[in-house]
Amino acid sequence: MRPPRTFLRPLAVGAPAPVTEIPVKPSRMIHFFDPSNEKMAAKVPDIAAKVDIILGNLEDAIKTEMKEAARQGLVDIAKKTDFGETQLWTRVNSLDSPWVLDDLTTLVTEIGDKLDVIMVPKVEGAQDIHYVDRLLAQLEARAGLDRPILVHAILETAQGMVNVEEIAGASPRMQGLSLGPADLAASRRMKTTRVGGGHPGYLVRTDPVSDDLTEGRTTAQQDLWHYTIARMVDACAAHDILPFYGPFGDIKDVVACEDQFRNAYLLGCVGAWSLHPVQIDIAKKVFSPDPADVAHAKRVVEAMGDGSGAVMIDGKMEDDASCKQCLVMLDLAKALAERDPELAEAYDL
Ligand code: GLV
Ligand code: MG
């Protein structure tokens, strides 16, 4: 690890100074598009206006023979599109692939001024972030950028999970982490064949009620991702960076997608990936606080005054700690309301 005194020094002569705080911007959905697909690329300006983050994907889901077209497509789209307040991200190919060096070199030097965050897949430890960190500094210096591009790591290998805390703190560029349930399942040798979400076989069952072991016993499906998301959220919160749930592959099952997103929201995630326009609305609904929760939070904060002591509201005890939870809710509501007049009205802010 770099010593504290040098942690915030640029890693190349002429590179911009690292940020001391990760900017907290609306980040409810990271919407993925394939820049090699001309039909999809033509829709980017319209979709960008509807999402918090739009991401040009160069990694998995892009066929080998389309890798270069996707990279060039992203350069062309970024140059001609005004993204307004919407953040532009990319997911580059993995660090062990033959494409990633050209991905980083081309994107930073051609459209580095437009790119907010680079998502790095299959990160296994701090060493992967250190490699990208130094290379980005060199490229930013070459491109004459005046602000650093941030880095987002996908947690999708068993090694990455074991090293999640050192990854989260590996560089001042670290913006956040996403759970990649599909690759992680493969890396862990889980016996699932899905992209995220639950599995009906992962359950608990009540005790037998008679000699017939099949009679009168209820079962409840359990959450395959609870441990992983909670661990990722702790690593992110401890390092003041942002956690996200990743993909939910069953596009038709909008109900289970909403459940998965809500579990992540309640555990502390700020957003999730959207792989199809239908998931944009789900993420918007789930990751924007419920107006009733915001109204309650306002009541508690007002009643608590300077935040010390305790008050009773509707028969429930509220104190410093519940007031702090309410402030988390209110801060998020205010940040979203600043950009969305409908939410500002719903929250009465
Ligand atoms: C995402 O990249 C995943 O593997 O789930
Ligand atoms: Mg993956």
Automatic annotation (TrEMBL):
Q: Where is the HpcH/HpaI aldolase/citrate lyase domain?
A: 29-194
Q: Which residues bind substrate?
A: R91, E156
Q: Which cofactor does it need?
A: Mg(2+)
List the Gene Ontology MF annotations in alphabetical order: lyase activity; magnesium ion binding
Annotated residues for binding of Mg(2+): E156, D183
Its keywords, alphabetically, are: Lyase, Magnesium, Metal-binding
PANTHER family per the UniProt record, alphabetical: CITRATE LYASE SUBUNIT BETA, LYASE BETA SUBUNIT, PUTATIVE (AFU_ORTHOLOGUE AFUA_4G13030)-RELATED
What's this protein's name?
Answer: CoA ester lyase
Per the UniProt record, the source organism is Aeromicrobium terrae
Q: What is the lineage of its organism?
A: Bacteria, Bacillati, Actinomycetota, Actinomycetes, Propionibacteriales
